[in-house]
Design a protein that fits this description.
alpha+beta; Immunoglobulin-like; 2 domains; 4-stranded antiparallel beta sheet; 2 helices; 25% helix; 32% strand; rod-shaped; copper; membrane; metal-binding; CopC/D
Length: 170
Amino acid sequence: MPVRPARPMTAMLLAGLALIGLAGPARAHDQLVGTDPVDGAVVDAVPSQVALTFSEDVLDISTTVVVAGPDGRVPTTPTVDGSTVTAPLPDGLPDGPYTVTWRVVSADGHPVQGSFAFTVGAFAATPSPSAAPAPGTTAPATPTGLFVGIGIAVALAVALVVARRAATTR
């Protein structure tokens, strides 16, 4: 009577599937979770600063915040404090539409960028195209752990088929 390797191979297949379940999600880039002023807001007066809040701490490397108002580019120097980036605005800026374009380095070392707009005073807000995905829609990182787990499961399934064929040809 031939030896049936089905039980050991089935155990190996189940172990491979368990590894897939244990594979954690890949780390995604930080996401912009809030701005002050809020994107699209109409505020009564020019704020003293713009603030961006991210899902995790950002690295204090090459951070840029460019504010453009009705009179052109507004001089500002951003600062990073954990997950918050602030850029002070000078006094005396006019009412009108403002666009804030930003770029930070995510905690995982990848750059993340985008823009948002707000309006000061009674001016009608004109929507500006945003280079950033909406909060919560940043493209996820490749789920490497999942691919490795699938590869292991496929390899185990192939080994099971080969072992069964070998057992039936004896």
